[in-house]
Amino acid sequence: MKSQKTSQIKTVRRSVALPRQLIEEIHHVAPPELKGNFNRLVITALRDYSAKRKIESFENEMAQMATDPGIRCALSDISAEFTRTEYDGLSDD
Q1: Residue of 15, 27, 41, 76 with fewest CB within 10 Å of its CB?
Q2: Residue 67 within any structural domain of the chain
Q3: How far is Cα 20 from Cα 67, in angstroms, rounded to an integer?
């Protein structure tokens, strides 16, 4: 009997045409544990690609926020408030 977690994993089969030169290049740079299993290699590469794109998307969104005048004003106000509270309770005595 399959475990519940295994039975929930859906697999989609796709057929793709890849340039022979790319396949040879990938074979030379693949880690030893993936060289013999092209399917696992493709899955790993696609996961890495997806993670990289998510990071790039987040960084782009943060860069856009950094140039937004409204957000810059709000951050300036927050910074000024924190600066004032840093000196609460301190005296020059």
Answers
A1: 15
A2: yes
A3: 44
